[in-house]
């Protein structure tokens, strides 16, 4: 932190001063002294403003003088050292400190609280916070080592960190929770969350408290597609938890963005008096798909399948089949297989996408169908589905009705998900770097 120059005064021609680093633990409880070195009080907290660039700038301190908390703006701070802050100027505003909109207190709002480490998709806890100065002071990162807590029991002058013992995470790699901050209207930025896979975001939500999870879900709400993908990855308990307080209209909007099979599974978990109303609020097309899936046992092929798939006629060429893949709005797992239909719209075989790209555009797709390919019936139970797909090395299998018309598809990830024990689904530790 540096003393501000009077308006209109020319800045002295001095060489750029080297960056300095300081830990929050080295400041808290430190002495506030005037220009003559006389003690005025102590440092209670450090004030920063989130959302102002990647590294939050320090805007001032909360000092305690004579039992009163005061605001010390950064332009009144002449120098900062471990255990001591030198003030500039002749006077200090003695009005009691009151939080302003958007201000975050590092000790009260961030220290010992959990945050997201974006590079690993894990929750970590800030045991100490590093400040750095390169022109102005800003937050540089956090120490997640438990030793950060122990250092606070030491005298202020002995709280420095050893490079060998700290576990440092740069601030650009973390996303703090802010919903608990009084007067803060900040929302968790979506930009960093988009760097995570939806499954990682779901893992974090499941590890977090309800308030923390709600903050994440509120952030991804700005991106309906991402929100739906996160909901698809959440376990049933958390899906219901975060839809419980939403209106039926909001719940229907989330379900509409989800894959039809996942939406059907979730709608059955809603309170019974909400199900029909939520379903009726969904668009007609998605509603019809969900209603069709609700007629099957969840442990059968019909309950596992998605109603989305790619199909071409038996007289189609390889080029036409690849064009169908390009324009299809389906999951990439479903796009791995193109189904072939005869003149009566019955399934007559499947061709993997990789096979299509290995052949010329003018070849007929029927010439590429391997003999003896299996299909699944919606009433097939899960063991039959899993065995059939394993025996024939299928990544995407057609589900056909009694007349051999395709009604859906099952992908290998659906089978794997159904096979995984609940205890394996969310094994990540709630904390760690």
Q: Which SSEs are present, and which pair or pack?
A:
Elements: E1 20-23, H1 24-27, E2 31-33, E3 39-49, E4 58-65, E5 68-73, E6 77-81, E7 84-87, E8 103-105, H2 106-110, E9 114-117, E10 122-125, E11 128-133, E12 137-143, H3 147-151, E13 168-170, E14 174-176, H4 190-193, H5 198-207, H6 210-220, H7 224-233, H8 236-244, H9 248-257, H10 260-267, H11 272-280, H12 284-294, H13 301-304, E15 311-313, H14 318-327, E16 337-341, E17 347-352, H15 353-357, H16 382-391, E18 396-400, E19 406-411, H17 412-419, H18 422-425
Parallel strand pairs: 2-7, 15-16
Antiparallel strand pairs: 1-11, 2-3, 3-4, 3-8, 4-5, 6-7, 9-10, 9-14, 11-12, 12-13, 16-17, 18-19
Helix pairs in contact: 5-6, 5-7, 7-9, 9-11, 10-12
Q: How is this structure best described in words?
A:
It is a single chain. By secondary structure, the protein is an alpha+beta fold. The strands form 5 sheets. Strands 2, 3, 4, 5, 6, 7 and 8 form a 7-stranded mixed beta sheet that branches. A 4-stranded antiparallel beta sheet has the order 1-11-12-13. A hairpin with a 5-residue loop joins strand 18 (396-400) and strand 19 (406-411). The model is unreliable at 1-18 and 427-433 (pLDDT under 50). The two termini are 30 Å apart. It has 18 helices and 19 strands. Among the domains are: 15-181, SH3 type barrels, CATH 2.30.30; 304-418, CBS-domain. Helix 5 packs across helix 7.
């Amino acid at each position: 932190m540096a003393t501000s120059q009077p308006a209109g005064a020319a800045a002295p021609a001095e060489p750029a001063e080297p960056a300095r680093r300081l830990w929050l633990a080295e400041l808290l409880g430190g002495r506030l002294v005037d220009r003559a070195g006389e003690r005025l009080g102590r440092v209670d907290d450090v004030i920063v403003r989130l959302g102002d660039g990647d590294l939050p700038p320090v805007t001032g301190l909360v000092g305690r003088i004579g039992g009163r908390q005061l605001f010390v703006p950064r332009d009144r701070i002449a120098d900062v050292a471990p255990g001591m802050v030198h003030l500039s100027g002749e006077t200090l505003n003695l009005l009691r400190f009151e939080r302003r909109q958007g201000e975050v207190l590092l000790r009260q709002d961030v220290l010992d609280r959990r945050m997201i480490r974006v590079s690993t998709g894990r929750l970590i806890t800030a045991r100490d916070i590093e400040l750095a100065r390169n022109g102005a002071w800003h937050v540089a990162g956090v120490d997640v080592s438990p030793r950060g807590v122990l250092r606070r029991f030491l005298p202020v002058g002995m709280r420095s960190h050893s490079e060998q013992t700290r576990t440092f995470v740069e601030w650009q790699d973390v996303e703090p929770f802010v919903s608990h901050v009084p007067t803060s209207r900040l929302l968790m930025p979506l930009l960093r969350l988009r760097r995570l896979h939806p499954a990682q975001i779901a893992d974090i939500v499941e590890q977090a408290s309800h308030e923390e999870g709600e903050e994440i879900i509120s952030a991804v709400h700005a991106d309906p597609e991402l929100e739906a993908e996160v909901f698809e990855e959440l376990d049933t308990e958390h899906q219901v938890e975060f839809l419980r307080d939403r209106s039926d209209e909001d719940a229907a909007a989330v379900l509409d963005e989800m894959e039809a099979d996942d939406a059907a599974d979730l709608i059955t978990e809603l309170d019974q008096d909400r199900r029909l109303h939520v379903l009726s609020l969904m668009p007609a097309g998605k509603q019809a798909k969900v209603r069709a899936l609700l007629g099957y046992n969840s442990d059968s092929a019909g309950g596992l399948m998605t109603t989305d798939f790619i199909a071409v006629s038996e007289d189609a060429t390889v080029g036409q089949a690849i064009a169908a893949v390009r324009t299809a709005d389906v999951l990439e797992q479903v796009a791995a297989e193109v189904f072939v239909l005869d003149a009566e719209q019955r399934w007559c075989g499947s061709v993997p996408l990789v096979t299509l790209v290995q052949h010329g555009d003018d070849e007929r797709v029927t010439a590429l169908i391997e003999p003896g390919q299996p299909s699944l019936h919606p009433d097939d139970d899960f063991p039959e589905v899993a065995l059939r797909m394993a025996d024939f090395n299928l990544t995407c299998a057609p589900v056909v009705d009694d007349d051999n018309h395709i009604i859906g598809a099952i992908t290998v990830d659906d089978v794997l998900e159904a096979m995984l024990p609940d205890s394996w689904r969310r094994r990540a530790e709630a904390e760690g770097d």
